[in-house]
Amino acid sequence: MNTLVIVLSLLAGAYLVAVLEAWLATGRFRLAAPAWAAVALLGRESIVPRTPDRIFFETAPVLLLVVALLVSAVLPLSPGLIIADMTTGALFVNAVLAYVPVALLMAGWGPNGGYALVGGWRFLGQTIAYSMLIVMPITAVAMRAESLLTTAVVTSQGAVWNIVYQPLGFVLFFTAAMAVSFLPPFDLPTAGGELAGGVEAEYTGVRLGVFRLGRMVLVVSLAAVTTVFYLGGWMGPVLPPWAWSAIKILAVSSTMLLTGHYLPRIREAHLLAWCWKLGIPLALLNIFIVGVMVLIWP
C-alpha cells in the first residue's frame, strides 16, 4: 500500500512540475498542458535510428525512470509512510543516483547520432563535477543524525532543521541536485539551442515520453531528498505530516525550476573548475563545522 501511495504521489508531483516548467517556457499557465503533450507523444510514431545500439537505445529512458522511482524508496513522507526503512537509507540514495549518468550515457551512445553523443559526454563531465557535492553533504547530515536511517535524519531535526544547522551543506546539495536532474543552468546534456535536444534528440513518441517522465520524477525525488535531509521532512504544525511533506517537496521543486530559469547556462569545464576548486573545499569545511557543532551542541 505504501508503495502505491508513494508512486502515485511522485507521478502527481511530476505532473505539477511539468505544468510549472511549461509555464516558464511559454509564459502561459495551462493546467492541462502536460496531459495534451503526453497524448501528442503517445500518438506520434516512435522512430528508430538506422544503426542504433538497440539495447542501450531502448533501455536508457526506462532506466532513468526506474532510478528516479528508486530514489524515493527510502524517503519517509510521514511516520510509517515509507517503502523501505533501510539502515543505510542515506547511502542508498547516493548509490541509486550513480545510475543517472549511466542512463544518460546510454541515451547518448544508443542512437549512434552526433548530437546525442555530445550530450551524453557532456553529462559525464557534469557528473565528475557534482558527484562529491552529493556525497559530502550527506556525510554531514548523517553525522548530526548519528545514523543513515532517513527516518532518523528527520527526527534529528526536531529542534532545528538542517537548513539552519548546516546552511552551507544545503546550498551545496541543492546545487548538486539541480545538476543531477540536468535542469538549467546545468542542462548541457539537452541544450535545446545547441544540440537540438542532445540526449533526447533521437527519441520520439512513447520513448521520448518515458524519458521526459523520468526526468520530471527525478526532479520530484531529489526535492523529496532535500526535504528529508534539510527541511525537517514531515515536521510542521497544524497540518498532517503528509501534507507538510507535499508542500515542502513542491516548494523545493518550484525553487529548482525558478532558479535555473533566471541563470545562464554553465559550461561543463567551468562547472568542473568551480566544483573541484571551490565546492569540495566548502563541503569539507561544512563537515568540519558540523563535527564541531555536534560536539558542542548535540
Can you give a write-up of this model?
- The chain is mainly α and 298 residues long.
- The protein has one domain (2-296).
- Helices cover 70% and strands 0% of the residues.
- The chain has helices at residues 2-26, 33-42, 54-71, 89-97, 99-109, 114-145, 150-155, 162-165, 167-180, 192-195, 205-230, 241-261, 268-296.
- Helix 3 (54-71) packs parallel to helix 11.
- 47% of the residues are buried.
Taking the alpha carbons of the first and last residues, their distance comes to 36 Å
The largest sheet is: none
Overall mean pLDDT stands at 87
Spell out the helices and strands N to C: HHHHHHHHHHHHH
User: What overall geometry do the principal axes of the alpha carbons give?
Assistant: globular
Low-confidence stretches: none
Beta fraction of the residues? Answer: under 5%
What is the secondary structure topology, with strand pairs?
Layout lengths: L1 H25 L6 H10 L11 H18 L17 H9 L1 H11 L4 H32 L4 H6 L6 H4 L1 H14 L11 H4 L9 H26 L10 H21 L6 H29 L2
Helix pairs in contact: 1-11, 1-12, 2-11, 3-4, 3-5, 3-11, 5-6, 6-9, 6-13, 9-11, 11-12
